[in-house]
Amino acid sequence: MKPYRVRFMAEVGCEYALWGDPWRPCPASGDHDVEDLEHVLPVSDDLRDRILAWADRYRRYDGGERELDMWDFDGRGMHMSRELQRELGRQYAVHYFFTFAGARAKWLTTVADDPCPGWTAS
């Protein structure tokens, strides 16, 4: 069976970072259009808390708190998305969307020699 797609990204005004596959039921719940995936997916509490804190940091940045290291933000997001892929396993396919221009190429070179089956980024 084709893996369930999870999109990991910062979104304007959102306190969460994970977006499911709207056309398929989530394997963890059986529901379509699952919201709050951070609390539905079978991941560790530590990773869940870090993902939610990351999403909240972007929400605050978008709300006017401009003190944000863009390079670090995208790097942390990328590494957490890979950790998420490893925790979820082959039943899921995690795709990380970089938030800030210029970070993608630089960060991807740092993980080029560390395969993470199912994980992709753009």
Describe it.
This protein has one domain (16-121). Helix content is 40%, strand content 11%. The chain has helices at 37-40, 45-62, 70-88, 103-110; strands spanning 4-8, 18-19, 92-96, 120-121. Strands 2-1-3-4 form a four-stranded mixed sheet, with helices on one face. The model has no long low-confidence stretch (mean pLDDT 93).
In short:
It contains four helices and four strands, in the order E-E-H-H-H-E-H-E.
What is the number of domains? 1
- Main sheet, how many strands, which sense, barrel? 4 strands, mixed
Helical content (DSSP H or I, runs of 4+)? 40-55%
Q: Counting H and I runs of at least 4 residues, what is the number of helices?
A: 4
Order of helices and strands: EEHHHEHE
Trace the largest sheet across and list its strands. Answer: 2-1-3-4
Secondary-structure blueprint of this entry?
Layout: E1 4-8, E2 18-19, H1 37-40, H2 45-62, H3 70-88, E3 92-96, H4 103-110, E4 120-121
Parallel strand pairs: 1-3, 3-4
Antiparallel strand pairs: 1-2
Helix pairs in contact: 2-3
